[in-house]
Amino acid sequence: MENRHNPRVNRPNHNRTNKSRPQFRPEPDEMVFGIQSVIETLKSDQQIDKLYMDKELSNPDIQNLAFQKRVTIQRVPAERLDRFTRKNHQGVVCLIAQVQYVKLSNVIADVFERGEQPFFLLLDRITDVRNFGAIARTAECTGIQCIVIPGRGAAAINSDAMKTSSGALNHISVCREPDLTETVKYLQASGITVVACTEKSSRDLYERNTDLTGPIAIIMGSEEDGISPELLRIVDTHVKIPLLGSVGSLNVSVATGVVLYEAVRQRSLTIDVVE
Fold first, then answer.
1. Cα 54 from chain centroid?
2. CB-CB neighbours of 237 under 10 Å
3. I need a surface site. Which of 33, 71, 86, 141 has the fewest CB within 10 A?
4. In this model, does residue 272 exceed pLDDT 80?
């Protein structure tokens, strides 16, 4: 999240090696492959987390069904599909969602109907499955009502994510939006203040004028390069986490915990004053 010495943020704090990252391989019960099998899955009520297609393959049936279900097709080399399965995938693999995605508009309506203040979390391209699971666990513990992720460039919500979340993903709403820029604008139009946590901010998280009460949505950015510039340009405000040691960054799941619990502290003080 926070990096004073390097414009990259949320980078894992480990020594670089020449070893490549372990390749992601879904469990057999988490994926469907083959043209007809994927078509039938798209026709069903089953929600799809990811849909990968050989960049050389054209299949109008799959493409039309994916468009209707708002599933983003990720075009990849055939070699990547081969890493998912050694069986005949015919150039297409889909990963089954381990959660049921909900509409953001429904979540907002439900929160207001319950008389609560919206307290949402947006994750801009968090790609590490275990980071995502840990963030979800903290989000549920801090009372976050909804996690919003982008349709492309987000971690797969698979069994690893479920396990790392310690079951929290069973108790928190997850929304998948095709365009986070439009999502931010929609939240703002709904009366929700959008706060970005970024090292580019001049405002310290713990300054007196940092207000995390009221209806808010907090954005946390990618492990590699933080929050997208287009999102930073349109948010209502931004904050940074102060770093006092020699290490220049925090793991994104740790940084998320810091920000969310500061929001919890401020919001609890507001409740005490009202009571």
1. 25
2. 15
3. 86
4. no
Is the pLDDT at 256 greater than 70? The verdict is yes
Q: Tell whether 109 and 73 lie within a shared domain.
A: no
Identify whether 266 is part of a domain.
yes
Nearest to 53 by CA among 35, 70, 27: 35
b/e map 173-207, b = 16+ CB within 10 Å: bbbbbeebeebbeebeebebbbbbbbbebeeebee
Q: Are 175 and 147 in contact (CB under 8 A)?
A: yes
* Domains identified in the chain, total number: 2
Nearest CA to 125 out of 240, 9, 261, 254 is that of 9
Q: Are 212 and 228 part of one and the same domain?
A: yes
- What is the pLDDT at residue 29? 65
- Say what the pTM is: 0.79
| CB-CB neighbours of 241 under 10 Å | 20
Regarding whether 265 and 133 lie in a shared domain, the answer is yes
Q: Mean pLDDT highest for which of 27-31, 80-84, 117-121, 148-152?
A: 117-121
| Domain that includes residue 239, residue range | 104-274
